[in-house]
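Note to self: keep these together.
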Amino acid sequence: MKSLPVIDVLAATGIALLVGAGAGQRAVPALLAAAERVNAGPLNWMALDFTAVEMVSASAAREALFGPFQDAMAERGLLVICVGLNAEALDEVNLAAQALSRPFVVADSITTEAPVGLSVRGSLEPKQLLTLKTVAQLGETDAKTAHEQSNDGTGVTAWNNRLSSLEAMRLLVARKSGKTKYYSLPVKGLVDGN
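Structure:
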């Protein structure tokens, strides 16, 4: 069986009720230590499995998910995917993301191959979502091709800026060929739930 980059949040932190900023801050070192032991290999993502966590509050999510942990994963070039959030916890994480004007990715589950039921939540502008959907449709694209395919009335520079912005959020990955940058999704199905 293939080993996927998944961290069991309860096993890593020992915190079943991730409630309050203090709990979120206490979770960060444990999550970072667990992430060091997980090899993402060629994948561009790492999942946090919240299945066994009873509750996550917005203040804990702000500290644990959108602070040093997400920054450390971004430095490694990894998108963080939240899996197994119950409905109440998902609402709380979404509140934190909205307050911080940051998107986050959730999955319904993870199979032996990949996350399934992916969607981008939190703060994402309509043009950014259009950009993600265009990249998903094209598979891999540069700004010029995305602009030509979209017919959205904006120029190539606007597309380049949106693509670069989404890459900085780890919602896209990029590779360079000569002077051209090509963008693709870090995980298949990223925008299927949007």
